[in-house]
Amino acid sequence: MDNSHDVGLTTTQSTYIEKAQSKGQLYIQQPYELYSEGNQRTWQRLYANLLPKWKKYANAKFLTGVENLMLKPDSIPKLSEINQFLSPLSGFEAKAVSGYVPAYLFFECLRNRSFPTTITIRGGESLDYLPEPDIFHDIAGHVPMHTDRKFSDVLVRFGEVAQLAALRARAMTQSESEGIAMVENNIKAMARFFWFTIEFGLMKQGNDLKVYGSGLLSSSGEIKNAIESPHVQRHDLQLEWVVNQHFEIDRYQPLLFVVDSFDHLFQLVDDLQKHLQDGKLDNVAPGEPLVNEKDLGSFLNAEIDP
Prior knowledge:
Order of helices and strands: HHHHHEHEHHHEEHHEHEHH
Oligomer: single chain
Distance between the termini: 52 Å
CATH topology: Phenylalanine Hydroxylase
């Protein structure tokens, strides 16, 4: 029996995505008519679960972003409508992709104010676990923050740091093995910084701590855990620590870092660039995340535009 209609655009099960990937199509359209009733119910349940927790734990800029995007609790957003609200505020746009985006291409999109956006949605049987990013994580977790100009400028600066890393990879004079090891360390350091800020960051807001990281904002269990659990370590962000700190993706995070403000975060990305230029990211501590061949190749073979 053909159950493709019931599957719709469910993560890891979508025929539409499989076909796009088989054709090598990374940037795609959002075929809204393919979302099943089950997909829409998943969005509704996720939104209902997260809304009261956003109001309690989320950074004020995120809550403003949710309002500015006119996110609907009862239906998956159309990216075209999201962009109508988003682009005038920060110049960013959500750009539909068929799945995994190699690291350099991802950061290059950010540099050009474009956010690679997954269009599938997780299965309804595991609402709080993401085997990989989905549209709720990307649109409801990430994009509200992109409506804020200061935060969006942080993402652009991060893309510029990645471009610099690719230029250093092109210009490396070491032996091939030493050069590749240097690039792997650069990627690992940037991935760790991105993880502990953009994905799982906490920020001071008056006398309170609030969540601004998308991985926390899109998980109804982890957003509360991040702020209230006595088992979570929360430390002021120190760049040298973060770039040497491994992380695991399949568990609640036991260690989180706090920034003072979006201006502070922007300054930290400037510091990250200086560390890169000074060679301080060329030999960071081993461990997760591992750098796969696609990510490495995306930096070594980057087509670099000015």
